[in-house]
């Protein structure tokens, strides 16, 4: 997957190769038309299922099923692929840390990030990928992602055009689950990129700038003269360059607690939450069709996801435990 900007394109390609999620229904093959397409050819409008956001458990089911389908596909192409669980998303504070207790325990999340990096390093798919020759890695990448990121294209709310291949095991798994791969790719690109647009709009809002000014005054009074939460976070990131890890973590936590105290003690936390909600609602209204369609596709994929996962569980039952089936990302 890539975008028009070269650096972002490279990052997107790496991310696509390192992380897989999603899983869906087995009842429809790639050759079978979706109900929407069949209804369209019949000259009538397809009935739309109610749009219902999948629960967290259903999302995990879809993600695991997609992993299983990718594993089957890669195995059929001669490449072992471990079914792993995606790690839980780290808590983020895009407008500044505002939870004092969290800051006291995690700082800015540096220790958590190091643990996540170790988990990625130990991931069985990554270990396998690193052990291949250059030609082997290229062949594995092609099997997983297709030969080139062309064939699927969608414009994200950020304005970036994202492309991907309709070939490869990722595409095969998503096509199996969601039927219309082009539609699924489009709604996924749109809905997954609403957050950066929302956060950018908050940062550019005059009310946020005014609240940051109040926060900065509080930080100066506490002996930490940083102009913005980004500046304090960047300062904390450099602690590890001159301190042992334990000392760097303690210094990071101390600064994060001061930041959170100032955020909650001034208008920053309140204004950030209010603006985030306002811009989020506007974006959801603007892209409600894509959001609803994604939910309907996910809901329709659940029966197959359950079948895929149940079949995989039956296949795994009685096997000798494989240490490769734990991790959090794919090769």
Automatic annotation (TrEMBL):
It comes from the Bacteria. Residues 34-55, 309-331 are annotated as: Disordered. Residues 309-319 have a biased composition (Basic and acidic residues). Residues 322-331 have a biased composition (Polar residues). This is Lipoprotein. It comes from Streptomyces vinaceus.
């Amino acid at each position: 997957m890539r975008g028009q900007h070269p650096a972002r394109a490279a990052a997107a390609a790496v991310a696509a190769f390192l992380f897989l999620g999603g899983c869906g229904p087995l009842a429809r093959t790639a050759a079978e038309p979706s109900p929407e397409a069949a209804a369209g050819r019949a000259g009538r409008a397809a009935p739309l299922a109610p749009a219902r956001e999948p629960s967290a458990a259903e999302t995990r089911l879809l993600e695991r099923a997609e992993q299983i389908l990718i594993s089957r596909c890669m195995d059929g192409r001669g490449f072992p692929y471990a079914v792993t669980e995606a790690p839980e998303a780290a808590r983020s504070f895009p407008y500044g840390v505002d939870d004092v207790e969290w800051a006291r325990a995690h700082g800015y999340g540096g220790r958590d990030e190091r643990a996540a990096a170790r988990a990625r390093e130990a991931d069985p798919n990554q270990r396998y990928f690193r052990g291949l020759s250059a030609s082997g890695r290229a062949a594995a990448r092609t099997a997983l992602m297709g030969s080139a990121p062309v064939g699927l294209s969608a414009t994200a709310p950020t304005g970036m055009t994202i492309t991907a291949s309709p070939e490869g095991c990722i595409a095969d798994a998503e096509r199996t689950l969601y039927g219309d791969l082009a539609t699924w790719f489009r709604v996924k690109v749109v809905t997954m990129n609403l957050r950066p647009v929302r956060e950018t709009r908050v940062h550019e809002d005059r009310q946020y700038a005014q609240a940051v000014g109040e926060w900065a005054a509080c930080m100066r009074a506490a002996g930490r003269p940083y102009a913005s939460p980004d500046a304090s976070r960047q300062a904390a990131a450099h602690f590890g360059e001159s301190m042992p890890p334990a000392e760097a973590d303690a210094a990071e936590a101390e600064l994060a607690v001061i930041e959170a105290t100032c955020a909650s003690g001034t208008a920053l936390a309140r204004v950030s939450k209010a603006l985030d909600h306002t811009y989020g609602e506007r974006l959801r209204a603007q892209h409600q069709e894509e959001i609803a369609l994604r939910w309907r596709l996910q809901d329709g994929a659940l029966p197959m996801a359950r079948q895929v996962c149940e079949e995989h569980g039956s296949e795994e039952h009685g096997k000798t435990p494989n240490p490769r089936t734990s991790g959090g990302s794919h090769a």
